[in-house]
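Task: sequence design from structure.
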């Protein structure tokens, strides 16, 4: 049944057309085939050589509108109180005791925020945290002298982004149930942000293609300014 639905909605997309962002968003929502509230996802194909360290984009971004699940944040710090951590939105708080819990198998969180003081201890858990993408990193804003600010940002929807092996960035920019305007604002903000991160060593066109789709929906090519 799902196959028939996909074939049906795919006929609504002209593969030879490059759609203005507003049309692309409306079409992505229209071609959603799931019974649940589909995500609206974007793929930005960049002209990058990811074998070069300076062309591996990675960092964090807070889009104007967040549609993902609230992240479970673990704050490891000796500079703030439990009350301050809870007020900032941290789901879990502690010091070396929480690091010991992780060593013993506890991983019921999505983000660790900490201060530089605890990185020597946490770095010893690389085999546990690394494969799951949970190791704190200054470039991602998760190792910081201002941990309470970082907690607030991640609870509001701050997200990690990074290029894959082929120079693509994949991110969720909305939900099928969301207002079109909010999704468009997220796309515009993301594209502008990615443009600002262009490595100086890139020659020629930086952004090559942009595609939009719903979960299990067909890809829609999106127009953009180079």
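Answer:
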């Amino acid at each position: 049944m799902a196959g028939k639905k996909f074939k049906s909605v795919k006929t609504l997309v002209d593969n030879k057309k490059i759609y203005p962002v507003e049309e692309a968003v409306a079409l992505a929502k229209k071609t959603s085939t799931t019974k649940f509230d589909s995500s609206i996802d974007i793929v930005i194909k960049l002209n990058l050589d990811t074998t070069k360290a300076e062309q591996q984009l990675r960092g964090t971004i807070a889009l104007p509108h967040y549609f993902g699940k609230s992240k479970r944040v673990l704050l490891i710090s000796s500079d703030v109180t439990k009350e301050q951590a809870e007020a900032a939105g941290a789901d879990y708080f502690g010091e070396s005791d929480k690091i010991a819990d992780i060593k013993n198998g506890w991983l019921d969180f999505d983000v660790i925020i900490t201060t530089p003081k605890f990185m020597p201890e946490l770095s010893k858990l690389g085999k546990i945290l690394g494969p799951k993408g949970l190791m704190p990193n200054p470039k991602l804003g998760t190792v910081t002298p201002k941990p309470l600010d970082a907690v607030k940002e991640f609870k509001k929807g701050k997200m990690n982004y990074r290029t894959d092996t082929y120079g693509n960035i994949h991110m969720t920019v909305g939900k099928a149930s969301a207002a079109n305007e909010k999704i468009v604002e997220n796309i515009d903000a993301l594209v502008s942000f990615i443009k600002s991160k262009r490595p100086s060593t890139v020659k020629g066109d930086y952004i090559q293609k942009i595609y939009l789709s719903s979960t299990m929906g067909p890809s829609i090519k999106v127009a953009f300014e180079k």
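The beta strands are 39-46, 58-61, 73-76, 92-94, 111-114, 159-162, 168-175, 207-214, 220-221.
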